[in-house]
Every structure is written in structure tokens, then in C-alpha cells.
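In response to a reviewer's request, we include the raw inputs and outputs for one of the modeled complexes. The two entities were modeled together in a single run.
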Amino acid sequence: MEINSDILNELKDISPVLGAMEKINVFTVPEGYFERFSQDILMPVKEENRVLQTVPSVAVNNVPQGYFDSLADAILNKIKAQDIATAELKEVSPVVAGIPKQNIFTVPAGYFEQLSDEVVNNINRTVSAEEELTGLSPMLQSVKQVNVFTVPANYFETLPAQISLAVAPQPAKVISMRRRTTLTLVKYAVAAIFTGAMALGVYNYVSPAKIAEDPTVAIGKQIAKDNRFDEELLKVTDDDIIKYLQVNGENIDAQSVAANVVNENELPSQEDYFTDDKALDKYLDNIDLNDLKN
Amino acid sequence: MKKILLITTIFIGSLFTAVAQDEQAGNDNNRQEKIKALYVAYITQQLNLTEAEAQKFWPLHAQFESDIKTVKPDLPELEKQQVVLNIKKKYQENFNHILGANRCERFFKMDGEFKRKLLDRIRKQREQQRPKIRRGV
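The model returned the following C-alpha cells for the whole complex.
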């Protein structure tokens, strides 16, 4: 019920008119409506059927006698009687409609009788090449048909000899050079130096020692053999160890521990805590001071 | 003639400079190599490597090391660890062939152990150097 009143209140807010309406069924049906309902529906249908049944007989009876016999003639007559095309043309374009129906093209008298003879005569009339050329270009006509190119006497007889003479090698220019006795020595020396340098390079890269064993590994093995590990470990400096761990400590743990170790020097030792219960506080104060200094 | 001499001089000169530069860089490298040699010694002892095993193991290890160095240091942390782990797993099989499963397992353990040992060494040295009570009452 509460929910209902809520909904009603909301409805009143939205639309006071709808909210004020009473909750009653506003739709009513006349008395005995549903009892007569089927009859009411069937009645118009029956009525319509009755009307349709009466229509055809009346329509056929109304046609005049002989109407269909004369219908085709009547239609044709109507079409002929009206000059539909002319009327339409007048409507569409009065200018075109105004043009009289007259043939304006004429041919001279006896034109078609003489035409074939005239064509044959024209074909038979021959024109010489010279005549045509004169008509087209008098300038070309004036040029005589003469070969204007000439060759000197015996030209082709002497030609091979002339060519071979021109192709024949010229005597080369001779440049004299002094003998190089001192240079040969230097040459060999330079060659030896280069060879040596190259050999040195090759030796450095493919030296047998490197192929056989890494010297570091050899040293390491020796240390293991002599059991000097702890002894050698003491010889290494802190900085070197930290550097090594930074380069090789692939897990960040080692790196951060290394960093911590560096700072650990500053931390109070275990004994400090025993002797002074404020050791940590003092350490923290110290850090702040250091930070401020930095 | 003079040209040849000049070129030769320059060539030889450059050779010497290259060698000299190598030596300068080598000094720092040498000390790093020393620690690497210690690593070799440690692993050799811990795994009881025989001469024949070492012959096969260290070249493979060098390859393994250089592979790990190709991992970019600026990768996200977990991704980086993953890549490193993948490389280790890739080599695990090869190490297995040489060392056998047990010692292969031990190698990966000792690899980290060596770094711990180095850190211990720093810690101990510092403890010795540090006075018992550094900050007075």
C-alpha cells in the first residue's frame, strides 16, 4: 500500500491532472452487448452479400441493343473525326505548326538523267603527274630531276688505302725514367712492416691461447687447485666488488644489497643499541643533518 | 718515396697508440678479471669440476654470461627478471649435459651464493674497521 501511495505521489508531481483522477474503470458496455455481439457482426456481412447478388443482373440489362456490335466503328470514327496530331502539335509548338507542308528542295531539270554520264566522264578525264604537280606546287615543278651529288674521280679506288693510313698507329711518346735502386729496398721494408702488422693483428685475434682457454678461467682453476680462494678474496677491494656486482648482479637483489652495504657503515652496530637505547633516534637525527648538508 | 715513409710512420704510430690505450683500460679490467677468476675458483671447488668438465663448462658459461648481459637494464623489473630466468632455463639443459642434473641445480644455487659471499666479505671487513661504539653517549 505504501508503494502504491508512493507511485501516486510521484504521479501527482509529474501530472496533477492525472493524479487527481479517481481510480475507476471509465469504459462501459451497453447491457446485453456481448449476448448480441456475434449477431451484430454477422449481420452486415449477410447484408453485403445480398447487395452483391443483385448488382450483375441490373447492369447487363441496362446496355442498349446492338451496343457492342457498333462499338468498334464508333471508336474508330471518333478518332478519325479529330485530327489529334495537328491539334497536339499546335498545342506543343505553334511555330512548327505554322510551317506550311511544302517541299523546299529543288533539282535542275533533267538532273538525274545526266548524272551517271557526268560521273563517268569525270572519271575518264586523265590528268598527268606533271599537270597535277604544277597545280599543287610550281616551286617543286621548277626543280629538275638531276643528281646533285658528285664524287671526286677515283674516290672509291683510293678509299681503303686512305682509311688504313689514318688508322695506322702513331709512334708512341717515349718518357725516360731513372733506375730505382734505392727505392727497391724501401719497398721491401714497407712490405715487411705491413705483413708484420697484419700478422700481429691476426695473432691477437686468433691467438692459440684464446682458443685453448680464457686466461681468467686458467687463473681461477689455479686458485681452486691451490685452495687459495678465501685468501684471494681478502685481497680484493670493496669498490671492485661493488662494481663487479653492479655489472654482473643480474638479479637486482644483489645490486640493492650492495647499495645497502655501502650505507650500512652509517648504521648503529648491535652494541650501540645495548649501550644506548636512543641509538636509533640519534642515527635518524644524523641522517636528517646529513641530508640538510647535502 | 716521402709519401710512403709518411704513411708507414702514421700506420705504425697508430698501432702503438692502440696498444697503449688497451693497457690503460686494462688496469681497471684486470681487477674485475680477478674477481671473475675468484668466481671460477669458487664454482670449480663447489662443483668439483674435473679438467674435462671445465673444458666444456667454461666456454658455455661465457656464452651464458654474455647472453645475460644483453638483457636491457631499463626493462620493468619483473620483465627483466623474467627474461633473465628464460635465459637461465635455456642454458639449464646444456649445463645438465655437462654437469648432470644434481650439480646443475647446485651451480645455479652457487652462482647466487658467490655474490652473497662477496657481500659477506665487504660486511666483515667493515665490521672489523668499525669501532665498537661509534657515537658517544
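As requested, we also summarize the result in words. Residues 2-47 of chain B form the longest helix (46 residues). Chain B has one domain: 31-129.
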